[in-house]
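Schema walk-through. Below, the input block comes first and the output block second. Nothing else is stored per chain. Lengths vary across the set, and this one has 91 residues.
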Amino acid sequence: MTPSDPTTVIGARAMLGELLAHHRQAAGHGQHGFVDMLSAEGVYLSRSSIANIERGRQRPSEDLCRAADKLCAATGNLSTHMPSSKDSKPS
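--- output ---
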């Protein structure tokens, strides 16, 4: 089992973080600017929180995933990979 193994909660969170970073960068958004854009969507996070989420260290909220899908034109890719809240305990 590896940290990016999508069959574990930790692996799914790491994979989602990698997807977020990929889509954010592909859309041309830096972390600081992205935080400002998220705030305009009603999602309030710090730049360090975005960095932690992208590294798989912090669990993203469903609101973040929905807003990021919209802001990065990810067409639901992030929301679909959101680990369910019942699986929030590390495995």
